[in-house]
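W.,

You were right to be curious about this one. When I first looked at the sequence I had no strong expectations either way, so I just let the prediction run and decided to look at it fresh. Below is the sequence, 349 residues in total, followed by the output.
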Amino acid sequence: MGQMLSRISPQTLRILALLIVLALVVVFFSTQIPNYLNGRLFNRISSSVAIMALIATGQTLVILTRNIDLSVGSIVGFTAFAAGSLVSGMPDLHPALLVLYAMLVGAAFGAFNGVIVAYARVPSIIVTLATLALFRSFLVEYSDAKSITSSNLPQWLVSFPNTALFEIGQFDFRAGFLSALAVVIIVHVALNTLRPARRFYAVGSNPEAAEMAGINTKATVLTAFVLSGALAGLAGLMFLARFGNITVVAGLGFELKSVAASVLGGVNIFGGSGTVIGAFIGAILVDLIDTSLVRWALVSEFFREAVLGALILISVSVDAVLMRRLIRLRIARERAKSEAAGTVAEATR
């Protein structure tokens, strides 16, 4: 068993473990909630996870560089309101321009975080904790105590997230979910094939070695925050399209869920390892648990945040224990190979 584990990459092992946990959660809640397993559950989860998948993908890029972005919820809220204000006043605006606008607004907020973290060398948890409140205050001032309502939005925007592109039985594969999945796949492919994207891993694994190898670590960290902001902006537009009614509390609490999705998905909180596919599955797990707890009569809704906090604590602890175990197994395996090679060499003399 130990030899089998040592042959499997840590990332693959994390994803397999996550899929098992996901299946166990579904089985557990199916025994607790009547009429739980049906097409409506898939449709509900896929619609809501589209937003969190985008945020968790951006959060993953930041965490890979040994940082964290706690301002993503405020960026989502501000972008949702700003995009809603723009399209309400210009209903004939081309959809591509609206998407670009939302991503640019989010990227601007991300750049603000990134410059302070990368060039002023202020810890990211301090910077983004401050900008979480700062960006939310911007939203309060910008909104001027007004709200965006779905009646002011063009029909194509409101109907987009729930538009079923194709169906398999009771399962609807909707435009919002498939769009988010496409973004996740694109980022995953880029992280695994493009040399500039691999720099996120290099910087997170060993910043000093990355600097000596000629990698501009400051620019890499800045890029991670800009991309995180852009994806949060895109998530803000998705939030606007799905809910329609936007107030100053839009996106509140998304920062905790995005961190939970990333670390549950096997992204090392200390940087240098993880995948956006894992974060995507983590987002599904977080949303599944969150939605199921609402329907589970035995648990108060006030425990939902406590469950997310516990999931973060457990996943980080398990990840640390698992990594130490795998390292010991591989050291023992290499030592056994070395000793065997030495024995063979002595026997042939």
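Here's what jumped out at me. The chain has 14 helices and two strands. And, maybe more interesting for your project: Residues 304-347 form the longest helix (44 residues).

Coffee later to discuss?

I.
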